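call fold(seq) -> tokens
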Amino acid sequence: MAGSAGLAWRRGRRSFSPTRKRLKPLRTVVAWRGRAEWDQVMVGLYCGDSRLQQEALDRVSAWKSRYGPKMPLAVDCTAELIRCKVLDSSGRLKSHELILSYGLALVRFVNLITERKQKMVSIPLRKLAIEVDIPIWVVDLRHELTHGKLPRLALCRKGCDVVLDWLRKTYWSRQLGNNLCEESEEEDEEEEQEEMEANTELDSDTWEVQTPQHEVCQKHKEFHGRCP
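ret:
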């Protein structure tokens, strides 16, 4: 009995050891390596120079390969629309091919942005568009495209410009005031290694590890209803 009590006392003392590592809060990992890279891509996408836009698109593709389906919808939609503009300026596609390219990107944008607003009872897209401040005629353009009626190329170009401006104001510009607090992949690997080492030292009979909540960044709240 005395031996058991002594063992329990020694185990209890471990919790007060000043040298024991404290588990650091888990952090969300994003695809970009830092604020500078994110800013560079944003400027590249909206600069109007096809060469710089293509470089930014290549960087977004790299983000998507790392981040997969967790890529923010706003980034994904912006890239698709900018890609249409790059193809348009290249002169490689015919008019009807450009209409289809713009149309696919616009339809996907409207569907993705309004989908998260849908409830158990279906809500008309026009009403949802008003709620998120998307011009009604963009929704009408989406309706024409999904029902096989090809609009004029000029209207598709205008729709692309309007939606890109909406994305810039609603998503990209708002991030300028945020600190993009997520860590890069390299920093996260160090955090994970430290956490694994700390977990190895824990005695499962005595310790109850509490996992802190993830830090939430505003940009993921913008187009995701949850933390990635």
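The chain is about 65% helix and 0% strand.
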